[in-house]
Amino acid sequence: MKHLDLNRRRVLRQLAIGASLTGPVLLSSFGRSALAAEASDYRALVCLFFFGGMDAFDTVLPYDSDSYARFAQLRARLFQQYDAANPAASRARTALLPLAPDTRFGSRRFALPAQLAGLKTLYDEGRLAIVGNLGPLLAPLTRADVEADSPLVPARLFSHNDQQSTWMASGPEGTRLGWGGRFADSWLDANAALGGGAFTALTTQATRLFLSGERVVPYTTGLNGAPRYRLLDGFPSTGSPTQAAQRARLRAHLGAASVALPQALAQDYADALARAQATNERFDEALQDVGENETAFPTSRLGRQLRAVARAISAREALGTQRQVFFVGIGGFDTHASQARTLPALHTEIDGATTAFQSAMDSLSLSRAVTLFTASDFGRTLSINDDGTDHGWAGHHLVVGGDVAGGRIVGDLPPYELDHPSDVGRGRFIPTTSVEQYAGSLGRWMGLTAEELNRALPNLRQFDGLPSLFADTS
Question: What kind and span of H or E run contains 186?
């Protein structure tokens, strides 16, 4: 009987994937012990995922003249595509946006491309930190370990699907629970009286692994509110009495109202439909109550996603939640070719959407309560493939928010050169900070205990310490 019940739970979890039909289905956990301190304030994490693997070397660029010259020579063909010899070109040294010197790197200096001017301002204001050489690890590794094919090397490196899963859930494709979802499980278990469980984990993407937990299933929001039933939209609520009656009957049918079915799974499905419809309506009502944020977001896909997140955050009180985790994404980073045409436009979209989102948090007086962080399949190779790059390993990432100890580079940035102890071939760098350490620092800021972090991040115990991403983690 227990085996049958677990199978029903798995099927119900799959029903929630089509959120436009079923919305969230909350499933109780088995005997979990909650240890998180009671949450008395609001905090949220926003994961911005770069699908395809963003080139970190072409995002945090070398700036001192010697390093820049070596980098330009190493990527000569790509720099020709950028027309970098033209002083006005985006990868010309004179066009880069230099970061403040860091004595840890000696004479080496770094810069952002001109397309990230808004993020550079946040960096200068101390509200953005760069986390260097970050990626999936099971335990600390050396080049000798990798060359010896150590069992501690993460499985299926350089595979998009597997490394997306490893980033989101600490294991290759087929892993079931993401660390964002496990974080949400801990908050809900420890703070059941706070409610808001249906809106603790929200995504704008079809990809839901990062937010999938034992107890929580992510709620998929549309870019303009809850997912909609198109049939219901054909019967406006303000129409004639006949239309109103037809709408009421259709709503009752779609919500599986007053249905009693003999098969347990069929009844579960009907119940899920009813809960989804009620949840969608509650979400839309909350958004209508708070209205639009005064911030003007770009009309890009990412801009509209982060606008939707900002609206959901503004409705936090109406939704009855004090802890939330969000997932948004942008694709197009698998730049095997034409990188000089593709990446600057992507950088521009990221910059506009992220800076607008930070402005929206400022307008809500929530800058210190919301942290946005980036993730990606992997970095890319330092060596180039004519006018593009190949799948790499470690990359550099961004953490943005008013509580971030910004204006600095956290972790290491190995030399942008080939054949050194961090390079395992073609400029694929071994991470020096693990995804789990990165996640652990974010989770600690959210208030999770050490035991809850270790439960959510199964390899965290293999590493010493967490990166110091925040000004105050007490």
Answer: helix 179-190
* Chain centroid, CA 405 distance in Å: 19
CA dist 309 and 220 (Å) reads: 11
* Distance from C-alpha of 390 to C-alpha of 402, rounded to nearest angstrom: 35
**Beta-carbon count within 10 A of 4 CB:** 10
Which residues are registered as beta bridge partners of 72? none
Instruction: Identify the pLDDT of residue 24.
Output: 35
Tokens of 318: 């109406």
How many other β-carbons are positioned within 10 Å of the β-carbon of residue 88?
9
Look-up of token digits 């958004």: 287
CB 389 within 8 A of CB 158: no
**By the 8 A CB rule, do 440 and 459 touch?**
no
Give the C-alpha separation, 146 to 434, whole Å: 16
> What mean pLDDT do residues 395-417 have?
98
Q: Checking DSSP bridges between strand 395-400 and strand 219-220, what pairing results, if any?
A: unpaired
| Average pLDDT over every residue of 50-71 | 98
How far is Cα 91 from Cα 340, in angstroms, rounded to an integer? 9
Q: How is 5-70 classified by DSSP, letter by letter? A: HHHHHHHHHHHTT-HHHH-------SSPPP-PPPP-S-EEEEEEEETT---STTTSEE-SHHHHHH
Q: Write b or e for each residue in 263-281: b if 16 or more Cβ atoms lie within 10 A of its Cβ, otherwise e.
A: eeeeebbbbbbbbbbebbe
As a whole number, mean pLDDT of residues 145-170 equals 97
Tens of pLDDT along 178-216?
999 999 999 998 876 555 588 999 999 999 999 999 999
Nearest to 412 by CA among 122, 60, 48: 60
The 10s digit of each residue's pLDDT in 119-142 is: 999 999 999 999 999 999 999 999
Left (φ > 0), alpha (ψ -120 to 50) or beta: where does 83 sit? left
